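Quick check before the chapter quiz. The format below is the same one you will see on the exam, so make sure you can read both the input and the output lines.
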Amino acid sequence: MQTADSISLTNEAVAVNNISIEGIEEPTILLYFATLNAGKFEQTAALFAATGAMHPPFEAAVIGQDAIAAYLQAEAQGMQLFPREGIAELLDDGQLMVQVSGKVQTPWFSVNVAWLFLLNWEREIASATIKLLASPQELLNLRR
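Here is the expected output.
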């Protein structure tokens, strides 16, 4: 008999299997994209260290799991992330730096994006920086 926890873990495994990023196998990174795409913002925020920071484009850093979950709930509704490829580098201090490129589709527009993650030695996200890869004209067209 499956428990709610085992069903949840099975669902996460299925979601991760649906995310494929050339060059990246780190489960934390795959879960980041899978949970965001599923609208499970509290689960996404739980991937961050307690004092982890998200650096969205053109905004101040959002620090801490509760603040990240609230930010995503307010700002990421309806977004679909399409990571394509990435590279991971183990740093001397045991942290892992991961760079991923791809695209984000919102209900209003699509834009190329680069994500830069720093994972601590426990493989929690210490920092996630999101950069829009667009020309100045494309950025002007994104204004709400």
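If your answer matched, good. Strands lie at 48-55, 62-63, 80-90, 96-105, 110-119, 125-132.
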